[in-house]
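Re: the request from the purification team.
They wanted to know what the chain is likely to look like in 3D before they choose a buffer screen. I agreed to run a prediction and write the result into the notebook, where they can find it.
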Amino acid sequence: MNIDIIGEKDGYILRRAQKEDAENYYQQNYNPLDPEVARLTGCKPSFTHDEVVNFFLSCIDDVDRCDFLIVSPDGKIIGESVINEIDWELRSANFRIGIFHSYACGNGIGTWATRMVCGFAFEKLHLHRLELDVFSFNPRAEKAYLNAGFKREGVLRDAVKDGDKYADDILMAILEDEWKALKQ
């Protein structure tokens, strides 16, 4: 197994992002960005080529983050998972994941990738805490996080908007001891 590959399942590969991936990452996911992906992740609806590629390249060199790509059996980049905002003293970080194509949703790939990245965070980076937030209008993502061992820690009520309506921002985390207990 390649050292940059951290998991394989049903032909899908989860691996570290490389500089050489920048163009495919943009072309396969942001040209154009699926409007539902933008809604569920809270990002703006479109990005320029240079915005995406330059940001992607800057992430590769950032020592306070680890970026992973989810690659489908046909070799296309269909998603990403990221450990970012690493606080090495607290051994804490933020987690996020995005599946960019609806055909890849609902078959457990997100839960699998989340578990694999949690394993990397706790076993390779020796983190103590991994946290995230998810919008209340994204119940499928919340379910995947719960299935991967994250626990709800709080709710920021009416903290985001979904169109014209307010929605909650749900705070979740998993601790290293909880991860170890899940592994057994």
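For the purification team: Strands lie at 5-9, 12-16, 66-71, 77-87, 92-99, 129-135, 151-162, 165-175.
Please add any questions underneath this entry.
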